Amino acid sequence: MQSRPDPNEKLIEVFESEQESEALIVRGLLESAGIDALAQSIDVDQGLFPVGGVKILVREDQAGEARRLIAENRTDNAANLEDEREPEKP
Q: Taking CA atoms, which of 3, 40, 52, 54 is between 20 and 30 Å from 21?
């Protein structure tokens, strides 16, 4: 595995979430697949109600694979939720 991406190199955003925990899970998914990922806070001042979140950045040459893994994981999770919702057959 390479070292963490350098924030000064060309990084591509592959995921964004308002929830830090969700972004960290995605970062862990990518890193477990050998894709180095950087979590970066998003702070946008919206007056009285600041909006924030976390975005996940990866090296440009790993962006396609990262997006594919994220999409596959979402599809798998959606299928698992559907299976859990189906009533048990007698």
A: 3
Segment holding 73, helix H or strand E = helix 63-85
Percent of the chain's residues with pLDDT above 90: 49
- The percent of the chain in helix, strand and coil, each rounded to the nearest 5, is 45, 25, 30
1: confidence class by pLDDT, cuts 50, 70, 90: very low
Q: What is the SS3 assignment for 11?
A: strand
Q: Which domain holds residue 30?
A: 11-80
Output the CA angle 64-66-14, nearest 5 degrees: 90
Find the DSSP H helices in 34-62: none
Q: Residue 72, class by beta-carbon neighbours within 10 Å (0-12 exposed, 13-18 middle, 19+ buried)? A: exposed
**CATH, residue 76:** 3.30.70
